[in-house]
Amino acid sequence: MNKQSTIWQHFAAAPHRSLFLVGALQGVATLLWWVFDLAGRYGVIAIAPSWSVAPIWAHAFLMIYGFFPFFIFGFLFTTYPNWMNGEKIRPRYFLTTCLLMTIGVVLFYLGLIAGRSFVVAGVAVMLAGWSVATYALLHVLIHAQAQDKRHAVVTSLAFLLGWLGVAAYLNWLLTENWLMLDFSRNAGIWFFLLPIVLTVSHRMIPFFSSRVLENYVLVRPYWILWFMLFCTVMHGLLQLWGLFSYLWLVDLPLAVCALYLSFVWGFLRSFRVSLLAVLHISFAWLGLSMLLFSTQSWVLMITGGESMLFGFAPLHALVIGYFASMVLGMASRVTLGHSGRPLVLDNFTWLLFIGFQTTAFFRILADMVPAATQMTGMLYLLAGLIWLACFIIWAMRYVPIYWQPRIDGKPG
């Protein structure tokens, strides 16, 4: 058996291998593109790049629909059968998903330079890959015999809403209908990413904590999950309706619930085990980001103003602090565990995780300083460079594992 076929067998041995690998490469690629655009925009380099799609909307799509889904698909393709004792996802589904999503992302980048038609083709191909993934996950959900499918039902509904978000973006590219773009970016955050990451957190953080912390009392009430999901969806709807001054009505309760869960799940105790601590720190960003959202909305209401106090700081606390940090933590854990390695986070990866937190800090700070200043642009660029450096190093450490056999000799 030649080396190429052996590597291919390793890729096809488990869903996370191919999808995490491309997700890592795509993370590097989208950050490289964004840092290059920022450097040109703020005069750090002489070239001021021009793209076929406005960079802010290209950046939003690449992050929401072209980066996180690779890791989410890889994670849930692996965990759905375990959650519900169902049939494993067949290679033809997860490899087809990975191939179509990869082709779509490549066409998207090509289209930013060569023309909008390539971007349209790329989003359409990604939508096809998304469809394959959603079908595979729904097949497991419907046919599994498990009595408790609550977490899987939520994540499956979120996938369907994410599919609609990609379709809306495609519609915007074709028609210039700004309502479609507005729905796409809001659906991606509030109807797709946050429901999935929140639901996975609700299921996995207390479970992992109970496995490694002594005398741990597992607290996982479902009523608080349903309430938090309600607040999440209402935030998205209020934002779509332009009712920004009323967001605090759902954001503040969501923040209180998140902070309560951080406390009862053992935030401080988690620091005894670094691999667990990264998940607890990531989740703590949810409470902080919603506090920022609620404060901004409340100030908007009492002042009757139109400008946002913190700008995009709450959004980036959510996306970088919560989503990206949780992806790093979960992806590291799955990669270690499913390669036969000990579930121990080394000091090197711990430092990378701290680097991610620094990224969130500088990106939030950029919206706190006076707008339209040179300092703002430099902070944007600094945050991007730190994230890029950390992600490149993380990829260099973990990506080779995806084409190597498990070190314990087991399949998968």
UniProtKB/TrEMBL annotation:
Pfam families: NnrS. Keywords: Membrane, Transmembrane, Transmembrane helix. The chain crosses the membrane at residues 18-36, 56-80, 92-112, 118-141, 153-175, 187-205, 217-238, 244-268, 275-295, 315-336, 348-366, 378-396. InterPro entries: NnrS (IPR010266). Coiled coil: none annotated. The keyword Transmembrane helix applies. It comes from the Bacteria. This is Uncharacterized protein involved in response to NO. The lineage of its organism: Bacteria, Pseudomonadati, Pseudomonadota, Betaproteobacteria, Nitrosomonadales.
